[in-house]
Amino acid sequence: MLELPDKVTIKEVGPRDGLQNESEEVPFKDKVAWIDLLSEAGYSYIEFSSFVHPKWIPQLKDARSVATSIRRNPETTYAALVPNMKGLEAALETGVDEVSVFMSASETHNKKNINKSIEETYPVLEEVVKMAKQESKTVRGYVSTVFGCPYEGDVPVEQVAEVSEKLLSMGIDELSLGDTIGVANPKQVDDVLPRLQERLSFDRIAMHFHNTRGMALANVLVSLQHGITTFDASLGGLGGCPYAKGASGNLATDDLVHMLHKMGIETGIDEQKLKEAGDYIQKVLKQSLPSHQMQVLNKERV
């Protein structure tokens, strides 16, 4: 029926993208304990924090302490988001494995998020990528608002391709294309990906879907059919975009893993350990996580 891969790579972004939207400060010790639980679940990649100025994202002000306190699994890449050279320097001091740079495909969202135009952002990121590579670190790039912008609406595919090509030309190792506000639908993904593939090599592309309108898993399925085999996800569906009102809910790692395993696609992730890690963080947050798998777990306990 479908041409699907045998294996998929899932990159956990919960400790960064998931927690950054939480208004109540999550205690440092709980972040460390949660990441340690995630490390036991079989992930090949965990994005543990972001080295941004605390005034922008107070929740992640302890990035340095988290980086130096977690128990690192030698089979896992531990990555962090960096906005500029100052953030990169701090990340490098902690022995981060990989750094991520980020920008938007839409001008307005980029200005709201980074306080710079797209053209002004390029030289800043180019400097970061160059230094990270000199330090023998791998670099990941994020492009936001690929399928729609909260301020501009539809974003032209040509604009997405242009920004993506520019980041790849800087020497990044992988590019994650983000549906930042969760507006993408399967038909749109099916239309956009072939057009992007004309200009981008999909062996270096990942997808980052949000589940704001409940279509993330469907969008993953379409992406799989187009040859994408790497996806970002957040355990329990935690998180969203702090600069896009109402854009709550990342693609839930546990729902994604469950779907892929039922379809016979390997992820290397242990579902039972995912439940334990998900249960831990929802108790810390004193709230039920929105993923279907966590809702099932919570009902079974009643």
Describe the structure in your own words.
It is a single chain. This protein has 302 residues and is of the alpha/beta class. The protein has a single domain, classed as TIM Barrel (Alpha-Beta Barrel), CATH 3.20.20.70. The protein has helices spanning 14-18, 28-39, 63-69, 85-93, 107-114, 118-134, 157-169, 186-197, 216-225, 253-262, 271-285, 292-301, and strands at 9-12, 45-50, 77-81, 98-104, 138-144, 174-179, 205-209, 230-233. The strands form two sheets. Strands 2-3-4-5-6-7 form a six-stranded parallel beta sheet. Helix 4 (85-93) links the parallel strand 3 and strand 4 (98-104). Helix 8 runs parallel beside helix 9. The longest helix is centred in the middle third of the chain and has 17 residues, at 118-134. The mean pLDDT is 94.
What is the gist of this entry?
This protein has one domain: Alpha-Beta Barrel (TIM Barrel). Helix content is 42%, strand content 15%.
Keywords:
PYR_CT, TIM Barrel, 302 residues, 15% strand, alpha/beta, globular, single chain, two-stranded parallel ribbon
